[in-house]
Design goal:
Helix content is about 40%, strand content about 20%. It is of the alpha+beta class. Bound molecules: adenosine-5'-triphosphate and magnesium ion.
Length: about 425
């Protein structure tokens, strides 16, 4: 039989046998977010296109080349979210969250969509964990946000992750910097890649993060923003570094890191993984004090980051970090005969109500095949019910690891009590 179709290019399925890896990361993100006072924000997977044009910036690669945009039957232009910040800001404004006690701290765990060339670590549907904080200019907030990300990578056991930070100043100090950049790059204009030639006109800071080798080399000797910071921005950047030092977070200052849009201000940063090849950024973020105003709100400072979940998983794989496997089936109750099947079903449901993982035969297999299945799913205990067991109200509980057996009463309450005791004992023996 031929499949009528396969998954679209640049997308991935997460299969039942692998999803615990995602759940482990997601739980760790949620725990870390909570520890920093962040609560979850969920926004739609699609938004009006103009939100991203303004909120991401129409000179960015995302808006120029990567968006999944379509017209609805009603004629509206809709875009699948390419990132999480714009939607978060829109929700912040739409629900008047600025009236809540500041700072507002929100995190998200979402899928994102970008029409890119798929390769290792670069997908068309990918997933981000992000944190956004609204309502503070203070450098302590920048350092706190960066620390939250650093803690996550530490808790995941990741090594060889470097943090690079920079300040891109404010619109005031950036004006002089832009002039200097344009003067420098104009000398090389004809040798620059096509993208960079247009960046020179529209968004000169983005020249610094061009990935074409020749252009990258030119960028190394370009004028650097830290030399152009005004007093206020310099003081802010010094503050961020001082708080990072106080938090014990190591970083290097990399003046080529930019977020080349007017509403990004001051702090920008990236976490890079040394183990996953060219798509090495696992997390990126910064301050965007002008964005809320750009989207039609009253001025409100804000900052945030997003981490790529697929790239984090790739890094964990590359570093051989194992994610704890989910706990196996607590008990498999095999059965033979109609009465015994019903009893197995009943006992399993009682167990499940206490939070245990129990299975019985829902396929119609013979006893031997049932036990084979119990082994395959790694059941910790098993029990066989037949006519005799039903008649006597007693069955043998077998510890699949040690082979040890004991009698258990089949009466509901007593059964639960004694099974729980047997399981606790086994837990203690494997993990005293
Ligand atoms: P890159 O330089 O790799 O294209 P970016 O600057 O476009 O990254 P951001 O918009 O800052 O990325 O997104 C934050 C994070 O999301 C990235 O650091 C990365 O981990 C992840 N990410 C971005 N694009 C993709 C993608 N197409 N597939 C998988 N992960 C991605
Ligand atoms: Mg990109």
């Amino acid at each position: 039989m031929a499949l009528i179709t396969k998954k679209p290019r640049g997308t991935e399925d997460v299969l039942p046998r692998d999803s615990y890896r995602w759940q482990f990361l997601e739980q760790l993100f949620r725990d870390e977010a909570r520890a920093f006072g962040y609560r979850e924000l969920r926004t739609p997977v699609f938004e009006h296109t103009n939100l991203f044009e303004r909120g991401v910036g129409d000179t960015t690669d995302i808006v120029q080349k990567e968006m999944y945009t379509f017209l609805t039957k009603g004629g509206d232009s809709i875009t699948l979210r390419p990132e999480g910040t714009a939607g978060a800001c829109r929700a912040f404004l739409e629900h008047g969250l600025h009236n809540d006690p500041l700072p507002i701290k929100a995190y998200y765990l979402t899928s994102c969509y970008r029409y890119e060339k798929p390769q290792a670590g670069r997908l068309r549907e990918f997933h981000q964990f992000g944190m956004e904080c609204y309502g503070t200019q203070n450098p302590a907030a920048d350092a706190e946000l960066i620390t939250a990300a650093a803690n996550i990578f530490d808790r995941l056991g990741l090594k060889n992750i470097s943090l690079e930070i920079n300040s891109i100043g404010c619109p005031k100090c950036r004006a002089d910097y832009h002039k200097a950049l344009i003067a420098y790059y104009t000398r090389y204009r004809d040798s620059l890649c096509e993208d960079c030639q247009s960046r020179l006109e529209r968004n000169p800071m983005r020249l610094l993060d061009c990935k074409v080798p020749h252009d990258h080399e030119i960028a190394l000797n370009a004028p650097m923003m830290p030399d152009y910071l005004c007093d206020e921005c310099k003081e802010h950047f010094d503050g961020v570094k001082a708080y990072l030092d106080a938090n014990g977070v190591t970083y290097t200052v990399n003046p080529t890191i930019v977020r080349g849009l007017d509403y990004y201000t001051k702090t920008v940063f990236e976490f890079l993984s040394g183990d996953i090849g060219a798509q090495s950024a696992v997390c990126a973020g910064g301050r965007y004090d002008g964005l809320i105003e750009e989207l039609g709100g009253n001025p409100m400072p804000a900052l945030g980051f997003a981490a790529g979940i697929e790239r984090l998983l790739l890094t964990m794989d590359a570093q051989g970090i194992t994610i704890p496997a989910p706990s196996p089936c607590d008990i498999y109750i095999a059965s033979m005969g109609e009465e015994a099947h019903k009893k197995a079903s009943d006992l399993c449901n009682l167990l499940r109500r206490t939070g245990l993982y129990a299975e019985f035969d829902v396929v119609g297999r013979g006893l031997k095949a049932q036990m084979k299945y119990a082994n395959k799913i790694g059941a910790r205990f098993s029990m066989v019910l037949g006519d005799d067991e039903i008649a006597n109200g007693i069955a043998k509980l077998k510890n699949m690891d040690s082979g040890e057996q004991r009698d258990l009463p089949l009466d509901g309450e007593a059964f639960i009590k004694e099974f729980t005791a047997a399981k606790l004992e086994a837990d203690f023996n494997t993990n005293p």
